[in-house]
Amino acid sequence: MRVVVLGSTGYHPNEIRHTACLMIPELGIVLDAGTGMFRVRDRLVTEELLIFLSHVHLDHVFGLTFLFDVLHQRPTKRVVVYGEAAKLAAVQEHLLHELLFPVKLPCEYRALAGDVDLPGGGRLNYFPVDHPGASVGFRLEWPGHSLAYVTDTTADPAAGYVEQLRGVDLLIHECNFDDSLREHAILTGHSTTTPVAQVARAAGVRRLVLTHLNSISNEVDPVGLDVARAIFPQTWLATDGLELEF
Q: What is d(CA 143, CA 16) in angstroms, rounded to the nearest whole number?
């Protein structure tokens, strides 16, 4: 099974990265709809598209407005956007307000209310993570395959969500800042390198990929991969277009 990184930064796109978006093309599953969402178009091979929103800060949802282009010449039977009820209401009321976006999107909205059955016999469960405005993480499992996605939170190996990650094949976790910006990360509800690697080690995951990397920097490695690998050797950096087997 394969997940593709379509956007690997946060807040705003930069010269080398778009904002948060992941896709499992063979199953038509998308995690977050940042500006990387436009890349779904060239990878859409299913008749159903399922989009799961961790939260609705603009860098994670603005790509919903690209859906008409995404679906152009890629007809689908159904597009479903999942998220917490209040967050979906905010998207419809504000992001898609008729003065900002005057055409109704070709999708339906479903509030998260328990586990979600996934194509291919999989299952998604979600769990709260601490972030201004609130966010959720996701764990997706199929027989022999598991993936967890955690973004927009301040990593802590003692945090309650760590147990939700236990033993996953692949953890994709935000790492917005390097360790020198720890105080700023806490202030803004984001993570630095060392605590993310500690989370991966504490949860006993097989591999860790750092994403939601600092948007101000155009460096390939703005967070210090060597620092993470000193704690958790099986760590990689997300880059736009990166394909990961899990």
A: 35
Contact 178, 204 (CB under 8 A): no
pLDDT digits (tens, 9 = 90+) for 164-200: 999 999 999 999 999 999 999 999 999 999 999 999 9
What is the per-residue pLDDT across 107-131, written as a single tens digit (0 to 9) for each?
A: 999 999 999 999 999 999 999 999 9
8 Å CB contact between 136 and 127? yes
pLDDT classification of 154: cutoffs 50, 70, 90: very high
In this prediction, residue 245 carries a pLDDT of: 97
Place of tokens 């202030």: 187
Query: Where exactly are the structural domains of the chain?
Result: 2-113+122-241
- Tell me, what DSSP letter sits at residue 216? T
First-to-last alpha carbon distance for the chain, in angstroms, is 6
The CATH homologous superfamily for domain 2-113+122-241 is Ribonuclease Z/Hydroxyacylglutathione hydrolase-like (3.60.15.10)
d(CA 177, CA 174): 9
CB 207 within 8 A of CB 171: yes
**pLDDT exceeds 90 at position 73:** no
Closest by CA position to 6, among listed 240, 246, 244, 245: 240
Of the candidates 96, 156, 91, 147, the one whose C-alpha atom is nearest the C-alpha of residue 124 is: 147
